[in-house]
Amino acid sequence: MVVKPDWLRVKAPQWQRVGNVKDILRDLALNTVCEEASCPNIGECFNAGTATFLIMGPACTRACPYCDIDFEKKPKPLDPTEPTRLAEAVQRLGLNHVVITSVNRDDLPDGGAGQFVRCIAAIRAISPQITIEVLIPDLCGNWDALAIIIQAKPEVLNHNTETVPRLYKRVRPQGNYERSLELLKRTHDLAPWIYTKSGLMVGLGETDAEMREVLQNLRAVNCDILTIGQYLQPTSKHLNVADFITPGQFEVWREWGESLGFLQVVSSPLTRSSYHAEQVRELMQRYPRTVPGV
Prior knowledge:
Layout: H1 15-27, E1 31-32, H2 33-36, H3 42-47, E2 52-55, H4 82-93, E3 97-102, H5 113-126, E4 131-135, H6 143-151, E5 156-158, H7 168-171, H8 177-190, E6 195-202, H9 208-220, E7 225-230, H10 247-260, E8 264-267, H11 280-286
Parallel strand pairs: 2-3, 3-4, 4-5, 5-6, 6-7, 7-8
Antiparallel strand pairs: 1-2
Helix pairs in contact: 4-5, 5-6, 6-8, 9-10
């Protein structure tokens, strides 16, 4: 058994602030990936008054062996009130930047693209100055569905690569490495003004050479932002941790990424896909892009 090191300890949050966020989420019957996926940063993020919203859930049509989200072959139908409730939560929390993610909905013809669009429209209707980041599944390679999301003009489109190609069959059996790269490439080609983003888990047995190759592949499809974080085993039923990566190695990967031309690389043991995602607003000021029709 690999013993968890000291650098993976998290600070205790101020529970009064955390409770306020939880009250809003419960009042509006919304899910967050922070809770459903057992994120180690939940206390910090809730304490800061933010959360990553999980739409079309909480059950996922894929059973990835690293993920703590519940599996259900036939999830419930989409809730038409979800976009309105989500927009109200964003307004009540006073967010400047919001991250919307979803479970995989392989049971839907568009993979849930339409629900993403409805959520974006509802938020913009009452919070027009907010920047919106969507963290989307691979949509089973339905590029028409991807185009639908892109047409809603989120500022950031995130799709996680998760791991190196060699480990896909074990870690992400229903995913496809090339398909994930293609999704990011098509996003850039269709809307070069969108900041594209991807994330990697480490500590699953990947090598430095494999990591370098993935970073190079992501830059080859013009991925702008990269997050790298330590995989943590949610329960004994999930994949084991192969290695706990040192903070020093995370710094090496950050330097690699920056040397390859990523606009931003967030790399640390506790980094997750939407960790400190609001920092993208500063990045957008440094590297502004013109959005058509805006």
